[in-house]
Specification:
Layout (H helix, E strand, L loop, with lengths): L2 H8 L1 H13 L4 E2 L15 E6 L14 H10 L4 E3 L6 E3 L2 E6 L5 E6 L13 H12 L7 H5 L3 E8 L2 E6 L6 H4 L11 H7 L13 E7 L3 E6 L20 E6 L3 H10 L4 E5 L1 H4 L8 E7 L5 E5 L9 H9 L3 H9 L3 E3 L15 H4 L5 H10 L3 E2 L5 E3 L2 E2 L1 E6 L4 H14 L2 E6 L2 H9 L5 E4 L8 H6 L15 H12 L3 H18 L2 E14 L2 E2 L2 E3 L3 E3 L4 E2 L2
Parallel strand pairs: 2-11, 2-12, 19-20, 19-21
Antiparallel strand pairs: 1-13, 3-4, 5-6, 6-8, 7-8, 9-10, 10-11, 12-22, 13-22, 14-21, 14-22, 15-22, 16-17, 17-18, 23-26, 24-25
């Protein structure tokens, strides 16, 4: 494996530095450990985690939900691993890898002795089948297909060798192959057995094995007794110490905290600052602070709607938001205001974007609407040709406060916002059908290539829910994927941000800090700057 060449071709060096810098200052543990005596790791018990969102499916080829990857982190695997301290790629299910001089042919040597949860072997040929399934149009894959969009062919000349050929150098490839998410190994036998129900019966290679899913309540995993192929940065060489891992889906924050206080759950993830104050001096809990690698909230405009095809209206939507006040009122200031489509933590972020991004200016926003022909009526709502400026905005419970604040801000402009609150899975499904004017969204990603999925015209039937179609943007997004020189790739994303601001396709809002409260009954958690809280080394102290 020629590590220096790999890193140069993928332009990952600068990405690693920026990502690590963006996370290191904010991964703080607070609280004391005096109340809990910690000894050697113990076997047995159950760890129960409270999560805010339930995935739509655990067939990772057929989802674009972050919630699905939060679950798959426990039962999945990946060819490579990313060291949480150095951020360098390390062997995992692939023992080694190499790349051709032109950066388009990747050869992976696959580890032997690995099995899927159903006992079938994992090897180069089974993983070839997994990737080909994601590429097959009949699968209707979402994010997985997009992550493989530059792949020309996948082949396995034998059970230990996997060859991936790309159409051109593809900067994010190793990143996508290092996360147990959309490209995780799948048992083809299980897919054949369960058919359309595979998403309710996932089979992969990770430390935890799927046991059951009670809709609206929880997913339960049991430890994989055969697991002995840990990632390099974990310490536990064998199966997990606990017998079970239970992920409970609790949307309401107060209900989640009550479950934590009562001991019904051992950890509550992705909380806001105000929710964790009471645990700061509690010796029975640990607070772990993390920063999202993507915006917590932005508004996507639906360009299929004639009203929103008018750039004056889109500019008014941007100028009409007092982001500083929104940040304070919605999440108590525990985050940063966003001015463009990339967060500060991702490679390619333009440090000058605040100088040209939209800032709150009510009078300019009104002037944009006036220029577009929207006049105030006697009820304070704007009209044009007998039509009122009424827009439906999709939201979810987690954005409830922010949505109501935005509704009030837009009312000052004379825009009547009707909020439709949906669970995230339903929101994405509704937005994909085009049944909306505006929608609240957020994303988390390890690479700026996420913008290709969300903005490229070729993704309008996938995750480009706003139906953006701009030739200049497409060319820049394609350059961002293929550039082998770090500065060239960075410049492509800077131009993308400038164009996104100019065209006002989105209304960037904020990126929040996230807080995780974990009972000290659970020891041995791992904090990864990209993947968050991991329980591979965790054990129950009782």
């Amino acid at each position: 494996m020629r590590k220096n060449q790999v890193l140069n071709i993928l332009a990952m060096g600068l990405f690693i530095i920026l990502l690590l810098a963006g996370c290191s200052d904010s991964e703080n543990n607070t609280g004391t450990s005096d109340a809990v005596e910690v000894g050697e790791p113990k076997t047995g018990g159950t760890i129960t985690i409270a999560m805010s969102e339930e995935p739509d499916t655990l067939d990772l080829h057929k989802t674009g939900m972050l919630a699905a990857t939060n679950v798959s982190a426990n039962f999945g695997g990946a060819l490579l691993s990313q060291n949480p301290e150095t951020m360098e790629f390390e062997p995992n299910l692939a023992e080694s890898w190499d790349v051709s001089e032109d950066g388009t042919t990747w050869t992976f040597k696959i580890r032997s002795g690995v099995t899927h949860h159903d006992g079938t072997p994992f090897n180069a040929k089974t993983y070839e089948a997994t990737l080909k399934r994601a590429l097959d149009p009949a699968t209707n894959a979402l994010t997985a297909k997009t992550q493989l969009a530059e792949v020309e062919s996948v082949s396995a000349p034998d059970e230990s060798t996997l060859v991936i050929k790309t159409k051109q150098p593809f900067a994010p490839l190793l990143q996508y192959l290092s996360t147990p998410a959309y490209l995780l190994p799948m048992s083809m036998d299980a897919i054949e057995k369960h058919g359309d129900q595979y998403g309710r019966n996932p089979v992969s290679v990770g430390p935890w094995k799927f046991e059951s899913w009670v809709s609206g309540q929880e997913v339960t995993f049991v430890k994989n007794e055969d697991y002995n192929w840990k990632e390099p940065f974990f310490t536990n060489d064998g199966p997990p110490k606990p017998d079970k891992l239970v992920l409970k889906f609790i949307t309401d924050t107060q209900t989640k905290l009550a479950a934590l206080d009562s001991g019904t759950v051992d950890a509550a993830l992705a909380l806001q600052a105000k929710d964790v104050e009471k645990y700061e001096n509690n010796p029975n809990f640990e607070i772990v602070e993390t920063v999202r690698t993507g915006p917590s909230a932005f508004i996507m405009t639906n360009l299929r709607r004639p009203i929103l095809q008018d750039i004056h209206v889109r500019r008014a939507l941007n100028l009409g938001v007092d982001k500083e006040n929104l940040l304070q009122a919605a999440i108590q200031g525990a985050g940063v205001v966003d001015y463009g489509p990339l967060p500060t933590s991702l490679f390619g972020y333009d440090e000058n974007i605040e100088s040209y991004g939209y800032k709150y200016d009510l009078e300019k926003a009104k002037a944009e609407l006036e220029e577009a022909g929207w006049k105030l009526n006697g009820k304070g709502i704007r009209e044009k040709d007998g039509e009122t400026l009424t827009l439906e905005m999709l939201s979810s419970p987690s954005w409830g406060t922010a949505a109501e604040i935005l509704q009030a801000m837009y009312k000052e402009l004379g825009i009547d916002i009707k909020i439709t609150t949906l669970e995230v899975a339903v929101l994405i499904e509704t937005a994909a059908k085009g049944d909306y004017d505006l929608t609240m969204l957020g994303y988390a990603s390890h690479d700026p290539d996420i913008l290709y999925m969300l903005m490229h015209s070729g993704q309008k039937e996938a995750l480009n829910l706003g139906h953006i179609d701009n030739k200049q943007l497409d060319e820049l997004l394609e350059l961002g994927r293929s550039a082998v020189v770090p500065e060239e790739r960075k410049n492509a994303y800077i131009e993308i941000q400038k164009l996104a601001v100019e065209e006002a396709w989105w209304v960037p809002l904020y990126t929040a800090k996230e807080y995780n409260v974990i009972s000290k009954r659970v020891q041995g958690i791992t904090v990864h700057p990209i993947r968050g809280i991991l329980f591979n080394d965790a054990w129950v102290n009782e």
